[in-house]
From TrEMBL:
This is GMC family oxidoreductase. Residues 223-332 form the Glucose-methanol-choline oxidoreductase N-terminal domain. It comes from Neobacillus rhizophilus. Belongs to the GMC oxidoreductase family. Pfam families: GMC_oxred_C, GMC_oxred_N. Gene3D superfamilies: FAD/NAD(P)-binding domain. PANTHER family: LONG-CHAIN-ALCOHOL OXIDASE. Residues 437-555 form the Glucose-methanol-choline oxidoreductase C-terminal domain. GO terms for molecular function: flavin adenine dinucleotide binding; oxidoreductase activity, acting on CH-OH group of donors. InterPro entries: FAD/NAD-bd_sf, GMC_OxRdtase_N, GMC_OxRtase_C. Residues 161-181 are annotated as: Disordered. Keywords: FAD, Flavoprotein, Oxidoreductase. It comes from the Bacteria.
């Protein structure tokens, strides 16, 4: 029998970016909020002088223990899904702050086109431009509606950016809070080459502070030191915006926020069309505990949000055979294979230094910023050169054709260790009717609950886009003066064993129609009005950008919706 605790105003399942933002906003309004985090406590001091590539980058210290819970994967419905036993394609964060601790900090706004993608594609190219199996839909919100929340997230983080608008960009209500990051010699080369090609490069929007900054909540943070230990690492300076150094302290200061770590939520409790709380396990004791609440908010990662809804029998599970149902629908990923690597005989670069968001990017081939009439894909991707800090264990580039061992391999490794640059495309990912999430019928976690199952593979849309972006990337490297260029020529099947990005999206998508979406544009469940679900699970497709800026904006929008619901009840409009 589970021990029942006193009721809270709000219970959060997960305390990362979304949980931290909602906690900070609601506790300032006087609500009592309980945040349940299944991982451990984290603080900036944990990372002081700990530049340990082996521990964090290769042994995954900040990530979920796959021996206790993982995902299963299959390329299509004709084959059996198998568990992901070791990390490859993406990395699942664990602990206070979640994936917001180990991210790079690249913080974009999606394009206006993204939020009305189906309508705008049909308007310009006609219905036949969309493949029959592609399930894109409008998001039920416009860029202009979401813009104030983008602005709020950027000011919370102190995003460092350049004011030059790029093609197709939405209008900004205010400038970036801090100026752009420093331009390295490699970045300057890319900028010159891109402009020679009549393209429009700009400095990447960065959550690594370019200068010291105090945000509107009074949180002060120091500037980035360009140490190169961002992705897969916590920041010892607090320069990289993460929930632990931005929004969580604000919520805790109110006295209205209680965080319980080592709390693994197994079910959302509900009666009729109302959520009543959650059931969780204290993993330090094994005790089952019931936390009642007036409002339940799912603020964990994509896979766990979908899994909890399915295990709790909330929402209508997606059925790929009929296209009906919504929970698990429109899983999408990212096309990260539009890459080219240039090797230079007469130039050296200090690529060991950098920051997670130190880079230069262009959007001339993103969204619908270029004509797709004669192309075998819609949307596109951003193209960038980043200098995130190449650490010694993971990086040993040599030109294609070099033997994998022996004298020549050693010679080429030494020659090109500091004489190569990568230019790559981050491509969008369109949903298809046969790409979805559901519960695996065979494999279970340490508690005996079914794992989430991914059914996904690359389509012609992705293959055509990846080669297109690779060709454009190679052109830039050629203009930069690379002596030898290796670039993608063909995109094979999706490979879950090779790291690409932790940009998993979809499964609890937002929209204007309850028959085709799980939540409204305040991220409130259509079926259960006191249950909110917020995160990249809300994306109806994935854009050619990193998702966190849009996740942060949606979290602020959701917090506003929860406050409205508290005052009026029913569906928030």
């Amino acid at each position: 029998m589970a021990r029942k605790l006193p009721k809270a105003d709000v219970v959060l399942v997960g305390v990362g970016w979304t949980g931290g933002i909602i906690a900070s906003e609601l506790t300032k309004k006087g609500l009592k909020v309980v945040g349940l985090e299944r991982g451990k406590e984290r603080k900036t001091e944990d990372y002081f002088m700990v530049h340990d590539e082996l521990r964090y980058a290769l042994r995954y210290d900040l990530f979920q223990d796959l021996s206790k819970e993982t995902i299963t994967f299959r390329g299509n419905e004709r084959i059996r899904a198998l568990p992901m036993r070791q990390y490859g394609s993406f990395l699942l964060g664990d602990g206070l702050g979640g994936s917001g601790v180990h991210w790079n900090g690249q913080t974009y706004r999606f394009l206006p086109y993204d939020f009305e993608i189906r309508s705008k594609t049909i308007e310009k190219y006609g219905q036949n431009k969309i493949p029959a199996e592609m399930s894109i839909q409008d998001w039920g919100i416009t860029y202009d509606q979401l813009e104030p929340y983008y602005d709020k997230f950027e000011k919370t983080c102190g995003i460092s950016g350049e004011e030059n608008p790029h093609p197709g960009a939405g209008k900004r209500s205010d400038k970036f809070p801090t100026p752009p990051m420093k331009k390295s010699p490699a970045i300057k080369m890319f900028e010159t080459a891109a402009k020679n090609l009549k393209l429009n490069p700009y400095m990447m929007p960065s959550a690594n502070l370019s200068e010291s900054y105090k945000n509107p909540d009074g949180i002060s943070r120091a500037a980035c030191q360009y140490c190169g230990y961002c992705e897969r690492f916590g920041c010892e300076y607090g320069a990289k915006a993460d929930p632990v150094v931005t929004v969580i302290p604000v919520a805790k200061k109110t006295g209205n926020f209680e965080i319980r770590t080592h709390s693994h939520v197994r079910r959302i409790l509900h009666t009729g069309n109302k959520a009543t709380g959650v059931l969780y396990v204290d993993t330090t004791t094994g005790e089952e505990i019931e936390q009642p609440a007036d409002i339940v908010v799912l603020t964990s990662y994509v896979f766990n949000n979908v899994r909890l809804l399915l295990m709790s029998d909330l929402g209508r599970p997606y059925d790929p055979a009929t296209g009906t149902g919504v929970i698990g629908k429109n899983y999408a990923y990212q096309v990260m294979k539009g890459n080219a690597v240039g090797f230079f005989n007469d130039k050296e670069f200090s690529t060991f230094a950098g920051a997670g968001s130190l880079g230069i990017v262009l959007d001339d081939y993103n969204g619908d910023n270029f004509d797709h009439s004669n192309l075998g894909f819609i949307h596109g991707g951003s193209i960038s050169l980043t200098q995130t800090g190449l650490r010694p264990i993971q990086n040993n580039p040599v030109p294609k054709g070099t033997p994998a061992w022996g004298k020549e391999f050693k010679q080429q490794s030494l020659k090109y260790a500091n004489r190569f640059l990568s230019v790559g495309g981050q491509g969008s990912s369109m949903p298809f009717k046969h790409h979805y999430l559901d519960l695996d019928p065979t494999y279970k976690d340490a508690f005996g609950d079914p794992l989430i199952r991914i059914t996904f593979d690359f389509e012609d849309q992705d293959r055509n886009l990846a080669v297109f972006l690779a060709e454009k990337s190679a052109q830039i490297l050629k203009e930069m003066g690379a002596n030898h260029i290796d670039s993608l020529k063909e995109l094979g099947p999706y490979d879950i064993t090779t790291y690409q990005s932790t940009h998993n999206t979809g499964g609890v998508i937002m929209g204007a129609d309850p028959s085709t979406s799980a939540v409204n544009n305040y991220l409130q469940m259509w079926d259960v009005d006191n249950l909110f679900v917020v995160g990249a699970a809300n994306f109806a497709h994935n854009s050619g950008y990193n998702p966190t800026g849009t996740v942060g904006a949606l979290a602020y929008r959701c917090a506003e919706g929860i406050d409205k619901y508290r005052q009026t009840g029913g569906q928030v409009v």
